[in-house]
Amino acid sequence: MSLILLDRDGVINEDSDNYIRSADEWQPIPGSIEAIARLCQAGYSVAVCTNQSGLGRGYFTLSDLDAMHRKMLALVEQAGGSIAGIYYCPHLPDENCDCRKPLPGLIDQAASALGLAPKGAVFVGDSLKDLQAAQARDCQPVLVKTGKGQTTLKKLSEHSSLSDTPVFANLAAFADCFLKDRTSI
Q1: Is 138 designated active site?
Q2: Which of 18, 43, 96, 147 is the most buried (most CB within 10 A)?
Q3: Has residue 157 got a pLDDT over 90?
């Protein structure tokens, strides 16, 4: 089974500069839930790797984060899919942890827990940090234009090692293309 890693805010659900703080605020991007289900139904193991510094900042509690994730899991299950694992970094940027993207600790956690190699996995994100974390573990970075994706797209030319990153309108467009031609994206 091959591994597909997804960032959460801006890829699966609508993002907010004010942080997503509750299950009520957690709203899926149209088509993202169904895209995850289709990837699962095609035999891929889908996991989420997400920075959640709002937890460390005190903007929401672990209970709030669990409620957001339960909502996401339930929606994916209702659509006929499953998320193999959710891996999150609660730390602030200055805490020097190894799990905050752009460092690859969350990818390592997911790969280890699922018994799948990160090399060659696909990582779909909307930020430069997502793409850099993917690159650090020889994953295939993929950018979506949702969330911070439009801003990130403008920055790609400044990072020559990421300049050939495939770009899609959203997670649903990625899944359509990926499932149509699994040899390349």
Answers
A1: no
A2: 147
A3: no
